[in-house]
Specification:
It holds the Pfam family DUF3107. This protein has 75 residues and is of the alpha+beta class. Helices cover 16% and strands 36% of the residues.
Length: 75
């Protein structure tokens, strides 16, 4: 699942691919936004960990994974 994270006072968003389901990601983000967790902590498909302070989150966009097209087919 593709996750886009907007951070306050940062010109670019953080984009990562996660193996978690939308429900699991939503519960992690909700815990961070409710004040229970000081950091939003997510791990991407390659094992890299992303830590964002909860009070600096602007938005979190949970989207479908993008599939790469291979070949020379018509668009």
């Amino acid at each position: 699942m593709e996750v886009k994270i907007g951070v306050q006072h940062a010109p670019r968003e953080i984009v990562l691919e996660s193996d978690l389901s939308a429900e699991e990601l939503e519960s992690i983000v909700s815990a961070a936004l409710s004040g229970n967790e000081p950091l939003l902590s997510l791990t991407d498909n390659k094992g890299r960990k992303v830590l964002v302070p909860s009070d600096r989150l602007s938005y979190v966009d949970l989207g479908e994974p993008t599939t790469r097209k291979v070949g020379f087919g018509a668009l």
